[in-house]
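Researcher: Good morning. I'm working through a list of sequences from a screen, and I'd like to move beyond sequence-only analysis. For each chain I'm collecting a predicted structure so we can compare shapes side by side. This is the next one on the list. No need for commentary yet; just the structure.
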Amino acid sequence: MTTILKTLTIAGSDSSGGAGIQADLKTFEEYGTYGLSALTTIVTMDPDRGWHHSVYPVEASLVAEQLKTAFAGGPVAAMKTGMLGSVAIIEVVEDTIKRHGQQNVVIDPVMVCKGEDEVLNPESADAIRDLLLPLATVTTPNLFEAGVLSGMGRLTSVEEMKEAAKRIRERGARNVVIKGGKALEGEKALDLFYDGTEFVILESDKIEPAYNHGAGCTFAAAVTGGLACGMTVKEAVEKAKKFVTAAIRSGYAFNQFVGPVFHAGYRLNGEK
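Model: Good morning. Structure tokens for this chain:
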């Protein structure tokens, strides 16, 4: 019998299915792993209010109970975090990682919902930086999040991304991926990988229309799946870039507000 590789996501719920825990579990399955989950927040998007987001954190004690359940079957091959919602939840996650000696930890430092531009909880951003980055095998901030974690503010160029990656790695993360995506000017969607020794630019053509809701969660989940399957961090990141690009290319318009990625795009298009 084939060994079952378990992957864990600790993240929020997106009932539209494109991002959050839903995106993570779909991605884990595309990688052939068995996905486990601990729900931290429920996010709603109101179509009657221009897709306004409301965020409802779960009690930290309930997150701890879910994690106890998840680890009751033994170790997991890799795990990731997404939206965590409160400092208390972040402390529970830190304790869980340390207590189980968890390896292959992907910290996706979610600080905003797509379409919103305010940090959900500034204290949580500080806690992610101070408590979780030192435990990260790899962290995957977008430009906004990298600006917060590095203390540099808005990042607008590859050179600024490189400096931010250096500063974030100094916080303890062993590897850093800054997701520039389509936000940088130019014809290419650019992401930056840094392992403390080399910078690697990952690029793909920008896709229009860009159905990219959930792209960041999907990318981090794909890195998690790759690590669980025995890839090096660099290999996992490089495949994740291809995986999420295919997912964006296969995305669709969910409604007039948002278009999610389609997580099966990489497999259905026969990409390798």
